[in-house]
Design brief:
The structure holds two protein chains of two kinds. By secondary structure, chain A is mainly β. Chain A is built from no helices and eleven strands. In chain A, the strands form two sheets. In chain A, strands 2, 4, 5, 6, 9, 10 and 11 form a seven-stranded mixed sheet that branches. Chain A starts with a strand and ends with a strand. By secondary structure, chain B is mainly beta. In chain B, 0% of the residues lie in helices and 50% in strands. Chain B contains no helices and eleven strands. In chain B, a hairpin with a 4-residue loop joins strand 7 and strand 8. The chains are: A mainly beta, B mainly beta. At the A-B interface, strand 5 and strand 10 of A face strand 9 and strand 10 of B.
Chain lengths: 106, 126
Amino acid sequence: EIVLTQSPATLSLSPGERATLSCRASQSVSSYLAWYQQKPGQAPRLLIYDASNRATGIPARFSGSGSGTDFTLTISSLEPEDSAVYFCQQRDTWVTFGQGTRLEIK
Amino acid sequence: QVQLEESGPGLVKPSQTLSLTCTVSGGSINSGDCFWSWFRQPPGKALEWIGYISYSGSTYSNPSLESRVSISADTSKIQFSLKLTSVTAADTAVYFCSRLRCSSGGCSRGGAFDFWGRGTLVTVSS
């Protein structure tokens, strides 16, 4: 099973700041990595697919990068509504998710 | 706009079978570029992929759950279903259905889970 390790576990930043979230795979997943945002009581929302492609309707402040085993989700200028848990997910071999990064907006 | 909605019992007794249905609107489940998927999320924990069914009816399951999982589809009702046998308290979770939109290169790898149901809590308890 491919294990995805996300860091940090928790991130606390102010509006307007830049957030950098990391996802590391236990073996290469090529570019088959996606990022999701999940708010309490809601389903996940697709943000990024194939490592760097923004999903439909996702603001330009969200961007993804990386390939192989190291990936990054960047939120360039935080808004209060970005407070959520962010998960990475691979579909190179079956489907697995990271444990999530909780982003708090101060 | 594709919409998905889970339905089924919210309480299942230990050793029994959990059965859920996902109803799809705004799209067809025999489209050649989509798989139809089940996930679960125990309270406060990460998401876990359970399995999916392809547009042609082929099914694929998480190896850790494979012996207990059955996924089927009813194209006439635009529904797909999950059965999980021999449940225990460890199967208590919010269960989600979702659409996997395959990548331009095919469905074997990659793609994105682009539409999700709101989820339904299933508790395993006597």
